[in-house]
Amino acid sequence: MMRFLETDDSTTRLFQRAVLGLVIFPHGAQKLLGWFGGRGLDATLTGFTQGMGMPWLLALLVVLAESVGALMLVAGVLSRLAALGIASVMVGAIVTVHGQHGFFAPDGFEYHLLALGLALPLVVTGGGRLSVDRALVRRRSAGRAPSALPAEG
């Protein structure tokens, strides 16, 4: 489990996860809580399942990735998992909805592609500086006794 949390001390990754989390969270809050002019959880799940034919569990995972996952990214908690969830949502949005509208906003996939560009390096390298993941790994490493050196001979 600790290898999954390992990351470097990159300030770049800190900015990537903070920006991605802060940009994605309002979209998740719309879906989960009805904030920022959103419809809330029940209406969102109904729209995804009945309107788009999405399985209920997948619809719930989308909402959780954009809301809880975004907050996890900001804090650097399970950064790789949170970034993977957001990346998956972005790929799904491109394939199912936005890809047919072309590249440019407001209905195109340029926003989703930018989010993927921020998320994928986090999946590969972790959350970087000031992440809870990094603090946990460092704390655990500091608590271990140094390994014995091989005998010379």
Detailed description of the structure:
The protein is an all-alpha fold. The protein has one domain. The protein has helices at 2-5, 11-33, 41-51, 56-75, 79-98, 110-125, 132-143. The model has no long low-confidence stretch (mean pLDDT 92). Belongs to the DoxX family. Keywords: Cell membrane, Membrane, Transmembrane, Transmembrane helix.
Relative strand content: under 5%
Shape: elongated
If you compute it from the alpha carbons, what radius of gyration comes out, rounded to the nearest whole angstrom? 19 Å
Mean pLDDT reading: 92
Unreliably modeled segments: none
Helix count equals 7
Order of helices and strands: HHHHHHH
Count of the separate structural domains: 1
Structural class: mainly alpha
Biggest sheet record: none
This entry's quaternary arrangement is single chain
Number of strands: 0
**Distance between the ends:** 36 Å
Helix content: 55-70%
